[in-house]
């Protein structure tokens, strides 16, 4: 009964409020595309630590910087923020690059309008399919976020060209126009590919969703996921425990970066990154009860692994020739020995705390 009701709620995209940013577009027809075994098939529940957060692994954060989708003007691009920040985090986790790598959300808004989304909504899985089918996504320094897409009439959007073109994929401007400057496209630019992506849902695995998600997050990194944004608008910190059925309808996309155990109640909670700025919530994050599909948080979970990404470029000239060298993504979950070593380390930590 419970599941048939939630199924109904999930299937009908009702515009109940201001936040209606989760939308699966017509061009998005491949929700999953992967071949590697999923981490819960080789990590048991009791191996996993009680507390784990990619924002603080032995004092180091593996998360890319916090974002705000709502400026310079309002744009409903949560789906691109959730999808690309989780992907960027997975690159950061590999330690391959000294510098943080942020991926271009504006490129997806410019070019992914039929598959991924626009300022008027989209999907995380559509973003992953779009990048995988296009071949790559440029780094953010090619095409920074402007909070505009072709249909948006908000703020300055009518004055900026957001059509999909080479110049709106990666570009530079050499000096002021009055001094003879011009803006030109860059044809070879640092970029990341996607090798695999997939989904998890409370609908198909209500009992072991926590084990599946913890394993995925621990072994490979943050995931993008849906949530109902309305009850979060006035969130002031703490653990959200709302399990009202009518609050489980997903209309917003965020990213789960870790979990914790609430000592008072004995309940697990997720640590979730939002894209409403650091003045919102707990420095831009919120915590929410795990395993009960609170606000629909476990309904629409998606993950993606990078394929190759640029870590070393040749200084680009304006014609953009021969700008890049290649590195390949090494999925940390494939190194079972070091994964088990990390997990064994958690056991010692647990023992330490309890004993
Ligand atoms: C990244 O580097 C840290 C040390 O700074 C190390 O503890 C961690 O295991 C490395 N991660 C991977 C995936 O190699
Ligand atoms: C993307 O980066 C790879 C290296 O990681 C490079 O070989 C390729 O040419 C780049 N693509 C574009 C369009 O610049």
Automatic annotation (TrEMBL):
Name of the protein this chain belongs to: Peptidase C1A papain C-terminal domain-containing protein
Signal peptide: 1-17
Keyword ATP-binding applies: no
Gene3D superfamilies: Cysteine proteinases (3.90.70.10)
GO MF terms, alphabetically ordered: cysteine-type peptidase activity
PANTHER family, per database record: CYSTEINE PROTEASE FAMILY C1-RELATED
Domain of life: Eukaryota
A Pfam family per the record: Peptidase_C1
Source organism of the structure: Cylindrotheca closterium
Keywords: Signal, Zymogen
The UniProt record lists the keyword Signal: yes
Gene Ontology BP, a term: proteolysis
UniProt similarity note: Belongs to the peptidase C1 family.
């Amino acid at each position: 009964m419970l599941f048939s009701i939630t199924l109904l709620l999930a299937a009908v995209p009702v515009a109940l409020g201001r936040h209606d940013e989760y939308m699966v577009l017509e061009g998005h027809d491949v929700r999953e595309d992967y071949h590697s075994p999923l981490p819960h098939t080789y990590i048991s529940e009791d191996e996993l630590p009680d507390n784990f957060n990619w924002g603080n692994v032995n004092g180091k954060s593996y998360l890319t910087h916090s974002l705000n989708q709502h400026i310079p003007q309002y744009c409903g691009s949560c789906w691109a923020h959730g999808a690309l920040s989780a992907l960027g985090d997975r690159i950061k986790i590999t330690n391959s690059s000294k510098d943080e790598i942020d991926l271009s959300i504006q490129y997806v808004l410019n070019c992914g309008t039929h598959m991924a989304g626009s300022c008027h909504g989209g999907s995380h899985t559509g973003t992953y399919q779009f990048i995988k089918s296009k071949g790559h996504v440029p780094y953010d320094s090619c095409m920074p976020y402007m909070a505009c897409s072709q249909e948006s009439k908000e703020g300055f959007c009518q004055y900026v060209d957001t059509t999909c073109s080479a110049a709106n994929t990666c570009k530079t401007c050499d000096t002021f126009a009055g001094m003879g400057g011009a803006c030109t496209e860059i044809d070879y630019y640092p970029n990341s590919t996607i090798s695999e992506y997939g989904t998890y849902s409370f609908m198909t695995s209500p009992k072991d969703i926590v084990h599946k998600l913890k394993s995925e997050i621990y072994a490979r990194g943050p995931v993008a996921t849906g949530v109902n944004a309305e009850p979060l608008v006035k969130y002031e910190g703490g653990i959200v425990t709302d399990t009202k059925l009518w609050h489980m309808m997903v209309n917003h996309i965020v990213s789960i970066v870790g979990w914790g155990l609430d000592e008072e109640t004995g309940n697990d909670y997720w640590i979730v990154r939002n894209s409403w700025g650091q003045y919102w919530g707990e420095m831009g994050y919120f915590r929410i009860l795990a395993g009960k599909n609170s606000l629909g948080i476990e309904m629409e979970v998606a993950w993606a692994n990078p394929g190759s990404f640029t870590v070393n470029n040749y200084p680009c000239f304006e014609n953009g020739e021969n700008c890049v060298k290649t590195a390949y993504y090494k999925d940390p979950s494939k190194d079972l020995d070091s994964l088990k070593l990390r997990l064994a380390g958690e056991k010692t930590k647990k023992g330490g705390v309890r004993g």
